[in-house]
Amino acid sequence: MNEIEAVWFACALDCEGSIIFQPATRLRKGTTRLIIYNTNIPFLKKVADIAGVGKILTYPSRNLLPGRRVKSKRTNWYWQTNRRPECYAILKQILPYLIIKKDIAYQLILFHELRGKRNNQSYNEAEWTILKGEYTNALKGEV
Question: What fold characterizes domain 3-139?
Answer without folding.
Answer: Endonuclease I-creI (3.10.28)
